[in-house]
Write a structure and sequence with these properties.
Length: 337
């Protein structure tokens, strides 16, 4: 039977100590000591994944280890920050060695890929609950924020949003009357279980893009966070949404719902001045990530001095400019199915 400290040392601490390079002091003391490079600031983010809310009970533990870190690295990507290290705290109902081996393998494979060190954490018994705090480094003058979008900016999205939501639909059999072939089902499921944090793109966009965030709760809902913080509106061309070939085989209504209201994509949504279009394309090419221009930031409804408490407006339209009446809402952790 694994004890708490044997579990930590065998599956996490020993591996972490072998790879500690950036932390002045890593696992083994009351606190880790970590500092960014001279002239840079720490970027810090925390995300919690709860069984039954963020993942299904029978999820592959290797995939869960990957995703637990991926959602945090995605936050660093949205700030244009370079990963430094992370802490891991989790509650586990029972310390099964096969589960821990697979989970830690998925976690460390992604950590090694992004040179991000485990520097501390905690564990206890309880319902499965995973919490990571991640640390990154970024120059303050190039950090990508949510409150810096300006009217006239282009709105961009990376990747092909909506695939993860389709993956959840496949797992839950949300569309029993509409069979999805095995290849597309596997593609959708991988998009859900193995999201790829756009760290390289975020770093390449630092100093190029104006405002950014990662899409975790659906593009329609998350874009509003930029609009609220920047006090602007947006006009979005729904026909410009980048749709994967697999998602394109679904009915158009489902394509739009998945791409705009689905969560768990962890793509970057960002704005940039129109004059920086070539720079955005160059950053995307450098990172090896597809980016698509889908709209424009607009002045707040009512102009300067408008009611600052009003919900920011997104004007949906098609490729011809005709308005579309869409009712969309991003994921809400307290009001989700």
């Amino acid at each position: 039977m694994l004890s708490e400290f044997t579990l930590i040392d065998h599956y996490f601490a020993r591996r972490a100590r072998e790879h500690t390079r950036r932390a002045a002091l890593g696992i083994g003391d009351d606190c880790a000591l970590i500092a960014p490079a001279p002239g840079e600031m720490l970027a810090v983010s925390t995300d919690m994944l709860v069984e039954g809310r963020h993942f299904l009970p029978d999820v592959d533990p290797h995939a869960l280890g990957h995703k637990t870190l991926a959602v945090n690295l995605s936050d660093l990507a949205a700030m244009g920050a370079k990963p430094l290290g992370f802490t891991l705290a989790f509650a586990l109902p029972k310390p099964r060695e096969d589960w821990l081996a697979a989970f830690s393998a998925g976690l460390f494979e992604l950590a090694d890929l992004h040179d991000c060190e485990l520097v501390g954490g905690d564990t206890t018994a309880g319902p499965l609950n995973l919490c990571i705090t991640v640390f990154g480094s970024v120059r303050q003058d190039v950090a990508l924020r949510r409150d810096t979008a300006q009217p006239g900016d282009d709105v961009w999205i990376s990747g092909t949003p909506g695939d993860a939501r389709a993956g959840l639909a496949v797992l839950r059999n949300d569309w029993p009357q509409m069979p999805v072939d095995a290849a597309d089902a596997a593609y959708f499921r991988r998009a859900l279980e193995y999201p790829q944090p756009r760290v390289a793109l975020g770093l390449a966009l630092a100093g190029v893009a104006r405002a950014a965030l990662d899409v975790s709760d659906g593009l329609a809902g998350d874009l509003r966070h930029i609009l609220e913080r920047s006090r602007v509106g947006a006009a979005i061309n729904v026909d410009a949404l980048p749709i994967s070939p697999a998602l394109a085989r679904l009915p158009r209504e489902l394509q739009v719902q998945c791409a705009l209201a689905g969560g768990d994509d962890y793509e970057l949504c960002f704005t940039a001045a129109q004059a920086r279009r070539d720079d955005v394309e160059a950053a995307a090419q450098q990172a090896g990530v597809r980016v698509t221009r889908i709209g424009t930031i607009t002045s707040p409804q009512g102009g300067i001095g408008a009611n600052q408490d009003a919900r920011p407006a997104i004007a949906w339209h098609d490729a011809a400019g005709a308005p579309l009446n869409l009712t969309l809402q991003g994921f809400d952790h307290f009001h989700a199915d």
